[in-house]
TrEMBL record:
This is Polyketide cyclase/dehydrase/lipid transport protein. It comes from the Bacteria. Residues 1-31 are annotated as: Disordered.
Length: 175
């Protein structure tokens, strides 16, 4: 199940809604049969970033402390040969629960991305909240940004869930 809806303002304690560190953003959720530790194992594997993040085309380097606060991924985005090298930095990291990132995508700007994992019967609810926070992308009206961010993050969560489900099956079967 994937759902998209605008965020409630920070502090309103909307049901099941995490506070958005930026105060606004696009919120997308996806329920997976994978356990939180399997989803986290994909998030904690920086080399897997380009596999599930839509638009990321390759990884160049992963800090050895990833996903610790302050660690960075060095990635590229775009279609070859028109790729741009940039970085993503961990703002906060709570193992098996939360990962907040500052994703750079210049010349468009930067976005804050908050990923949360909520255990549920039979799996995990993965929530991603994202919005542009600096740069020219902030000049695009938020409703227009939402039209681009929501479908991209729906696909990203599907990919993340498939990877985690595969890792979960592999840990159970040993294959």
């Amino acid at each position: 199940m994937t759902s998209t809806r605008p965020l409630h303002p920070v502090g309103t304690n909307a049901p099941d809604a995490p506070d958005d560190p930026g105060g606004s953003g696009v919120r997308v959720q996806h329920d997976t049969s994978a356990a939180p530790e399997h989803v986290w194992s994909i998030l904690a594997d920086g080399w897997a970033y380009a596999t599930w993040v839509v638009g990321a085309s390759r990884m160049r380097r992963v800090d050895p402390t990833w996903p610790a606060q302050g660690s960075r991924l060095h990635h590229s985005f775009g279609l070859w040969p028109l790729v741009i090298d940039d970085t993503t930095t961990v703002l906060t990291s709570v193992e098996r629960a939360e990962l907040t990132l500052q994703a750079r995508g210049w010349p468009a700007g930067e976005a804050t991305v908050w990923v949360t994992l909520t255990p549920r019967a039979g799996g995990t609810r993965i929530t991603i909240v994202e919005d542009v926070t600096t740069g020219p992308g902030t000049l695009v009206p938020q409703p227009v940004r939402q039209l681009a961010i929501a479908p991209r993050n729906q696909e990203a969560l599907r990919r993340l869930a498939w990877l985690a489900e595969g890792r979960g099956r592999r840990s159970v079967t040993g294959v």
